[in-house]
DNA sequence: AGTTGACCTGGAGCGCGCTCCAGGTCGTAC
DNA sequence: GTACGACCTGGAGCGCGCTCCAGGTCAACT
């Protein structure tokens, strides 16, 4: 199957502009073209886009994704370095999750204080200003 | 206690420039000044900065933090709206954690594949290119 | 034949969150 | 008294990740 840029955008959740942008900055191999010169994305292109959006969700900077993309183009020989990038990213994600969980606790604490203020606990007035 | 901008930066983990920037954009009440006109941050200022950095860590945009800061200046009457902001943010953080955990699984899957490739599993060659 | 609409290209512009700079004022140490 | 270093102000600049625009091509429909 092949997909127009509009369809690829719809399926990947990226905008048309972003698809062209990703191609421009070498995140994405230039897709095939139809007879009229229009982009025709393959299922593999879409799978790659899906993976890219995952990496993006993890907070990986585009610079790093480009590095990964470049390695991918070199084939199997680069598997080790690609794995290293993913392992590093896994660590970063785990750290980020821990960080967010810590913040969640702070939020819960604060929210709890606001609850008590609503119930008229005057002793918390000072807390309310912080 | 009061702290010079350098000391406040050290303690908050923000840069001196960022402290002045936060003040400029109304995230931070202008701190007191010493006789020479230099900023003198109080412990309360530092506590607020600590909270701000937590909010930042959760990914709250500055725009929203300003809103919260503005409400805080209005005192107790705004407690309800401040709480609402924190509750919303708690939801956003929980969602983000879930998202990251899903990505973690994808990363683990990919890393696992790379492990197998290293062990010479030729059947995974195609996978390696993705 | 004309209109529409999806697509094309190259390049400019934008919102975010800082970060850096020039040029100046103070207070302390030598 | 002068050199230094920390601080001050207003404003420009930057890296990121898009997003938008002008001007054009092409295929399909009426």
Automatic annotation (TrEMBL), chains A, B:
Origin: domain of life: Bacteria
Pfam hit, one: MerR_1
Residue intervals of the HTH merR-type domain: 1-71
Native organism: Prauserella endophytica
Swiss-Prot/TrEMBL keywords: DNA-binding
Protein name according to UniProt: MerR family transcriptional regulator
Family annotation (InterPro entries): DNA-bd_dom_put_sf, MerR-type_HTH_dom, MerR_fam
């Amino acid at each position: 199957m092949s997909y127009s840029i509009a369809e690829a955008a719809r399926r990947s959740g990226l905008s048309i502009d972003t698809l062209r942008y990703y191609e421009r900055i070498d995140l994405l191999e230039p897709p095939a073209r139809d007879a009229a010169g229009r982009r025709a994305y393959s299922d593999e292109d879409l799978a790659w886009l899906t993976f890219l959006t995952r990496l993006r969700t993890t907070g990986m900077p585009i610079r790093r994704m480009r590095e990964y993309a470049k390695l991918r183009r070199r084939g199997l020989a680069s598997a080790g370095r690609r794995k290293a990038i993913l392992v590093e990213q896994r660590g970063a994600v785990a750290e980020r999750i821990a960080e967010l969980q810590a913040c969640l606790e702070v939020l819960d604490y604060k929210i709890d204080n606001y609850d008590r203020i609503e119930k008229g606990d005057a002793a918390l007035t000072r807390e309310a200003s912080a």
